[in-house]
Amino acid sequence: MAESPRAAKTREAIIQAAAGVFEQHGYNGARLSMITSRSGLTMGAIYFHFTSKDDLARAVMAAQADDLVLPDGERGLQRLIDITLYLASELQRNVLLRAGVRLAIEQGSFGVRDSTPYLQWVDRFRDELGAAEAVGDLLPEVVVADVAQLLVSSYSGTQLLSEIATDRADLPERIVRMWTYLLPGIATPEARTRLRLEPSVADRADDADRGNDQPGR
Amino acid sequence: MAESPRAAKTREAIIQAAAGVFEQHGYNGARLSMITSRSGLTMGAIYFHFTSKDDLARAVMAAQADDLVLPDGERGLQRLIDITLYLASELQRNVLLRAGVRLAIEQGSFGVRDSTPYLQWVDRFRDELGAAEAVGDLLPEVVVADVAQLLVSSYSGTQLLSEIATDRADLPERIVRMWTYLLPGIATPEARTRLRLEPSVADRADDADRGNDQPGR
């Protein structure tokens, strides 16, 4: 169904307001009335665009990357590292990403089993790994699809433990450590001497992008 | 408070019945009445031992390893690998473990932030890594406490993605791949030539243990 620009704008406003509610209260604590009072939108508008709270939660999961401005640069391992560190700092403050990740982790609690939010990242990571493979930065025994799955898995678990332990305050350092121990099994020794693992790089890139709200990718 | 043997037995029966309900319905879908009808225990007995559903969920999380019989053998990397592969097969069928892990993952959905269930595994993994370090199996730059955290993180995320994608059918292979890519950053080349990464080893050990229900550790 093609949407009018106005309908698309309303739909996005609903998703943004819902993200704020889901991020704070989780799926089970969220009420549609919290979304209307936060956004000034009507219950009718919500039900015009979404069939249920479940449907809205899936939309927030799927839109988790929409507010991101992923780091630029040549495709490959360095860019993949920079993306993971950028995500670590966004997970500390980007409401849409935090809500989407929270819902993806807790989806079992509301009876959903949707791997799309993870597979989006698997695809994105696989692209960068494919570029790294093409320039000879990966060890010959590496299977790109497997490493993409492993990285998204490790990332998901790392952010989960960091969230529970420190409310994600230590997530950037944990991601640096993840790479420190994973790179010897993935990248050539030559590539490893070139790669930078600095959480501050992602933070600087991110600060420069503030005020720029175009969608990521 | 010291418990009588009978009270301890009742408490364990409640936890086992609750695990079955939480594993199937999650925290939010679980009702205490499901636990009484499953166990033949009374609501009074549940409230004698636990103050609330929340309290009971924490107890199931904490008891997640109680039905396990972890692989024997010399302490160190091989044993750690065997434990992770054993856990992968138990996660396919052990109700108490499945319930405890489900609750630990979804705990945000019911307002709990309890890192104890993860830290139990971090401690266990650190013990084996410490033994590996003592016999010179780890690379000199390895920080045992960091690798223990990383392994539990990667494991948690891997089981989460495997659960969503295949109901954990592919978890053993995913754990083998996790080790394949992580070992070069952790273990010496000499140690790596000795280590076996075979999901079937854990399965065989596990089959031999069937019928033996003594608590793990």
TrEMBL record, chains A, B:
DNA-binding positions are 31-50
Q: Per the database record, which ranges form the HTH tetR-type domain?
A: 8-68
Its keywords, alphabetically, are:
DNA-binding, Receptor, Transcription, Transcription regulation
**Listed InterPro entries:** ArpA-like (IPR047923), CprB_TetR_C (IPR054126), Homeodomain-like_sf (IPR009057), HTH-type_TetR-like_transc_reg (IPR050109), HTH_TetR (IPR001647), Tet_transcr_reg_TetR-rel_C_sf (IPR036271)
List the residue ranges of the region (Disordered): 197-217
What SUPFAM superfamilies does this protein's entry cite?
A: Homeodomain-like, Tetracyclin repressor-like, C-terminal domain
| MF terms (GO), sorted A to Z | DNA-binding transcription factor activity; transcription cis-regulatory region binding
Top-level taxon in the UniProt lineage? Bacteria
**Which protein is depicted?**
Gamma-butyrolactone receptor KsbA
Species of the source: Kitasatospora setae (strain ATCC 33774 / DSM 43861 / JCM 3304 / KCC A-0304 / NBRC 14216 / KM-6054)
Q: What is the lineage of its organism?
A: Bacteria, Bacillati, Actinomycetota, Actinomycetes, Kitasatosporales
